[in-house]
Write a structure and sequence with these properties.
The protein has about 280 residues and is an alpha+beta fold. About 35% of the residues lie in helices and about 10% in strands. About 30% of the residues are buried.
Length: about 280
Amino acid sequence: MTLGGARERRVGMRRAAVIGGALVAMLVLSGCVPGSVAAAGATHRPTPHRSAPSPRPPRPTPTLPPTPTPVAFDKTAQSTDDPASPWVVVNKARGLNPVDYAPADLIYPDVPNLNDQPMRQETAAAVVAMFQAAKSEAGLSLSIQSAYRSFDSQTRVYADDVARNGQAYADTDTARPGHSEHQTGLAVDISAVPAHCSLDACFGETEQGRWLAANAWRFGFILRYPVDKVAVTGFTYEPWHFRYVGVLLSTQLHTTGVTTLEEFFGLPGGETYPG
């Protein structure tokens, strides 16, 4: 081999080595490294194992509170016959038993009282609260015209009415003794202060009369003789006559729109006395 040929061979071998090194570098950079070259030029990172997501628990079905069952009003909770009961029904067909009944708990409330007459303790407390509300809510002043009347006192009142107007007329607006709500200590006749339309139908058109008609139920009272219920109650319209029955019953009457005790309890009434 000549000297020139040997030199060309050495140059070719160096070119081959350079090209081979370049190829290896390219393989390393591209990740296509076979066997030992990959082990020497790169670190293998295993793909992490991802477990399947846990299924979501089912959403609980919302439970609605049960609809409360309406509680029926118990009409037998208190007696309609016992004269000491605030639910006692007294009219021409239903007299008091005993006929000369007198309440045991009469007191005098701290309110204006023209005839200085007492009333049952529970009635008195309700009167005080009602009069205070009329003053604070509407600026109205009220007075008791009459309240409890004994059997003997009612006898005199009825006899006086008969003497002045005759028995037929007296029976339309004054109860006979033993048939009067005033004898129970649960009834009050109310007038305005200053007095206006006292014991007269026009009281219903006064500010005091309108306020009482709209609000008395809140304190346990009912307008006992409405204008359209004369045939039921047996007495003419008395917008001043309020009867204490307790808040439970007065609220029930107000809610249902029933305006008389006779209709609510299904008891006899009417315009004539038996016998």
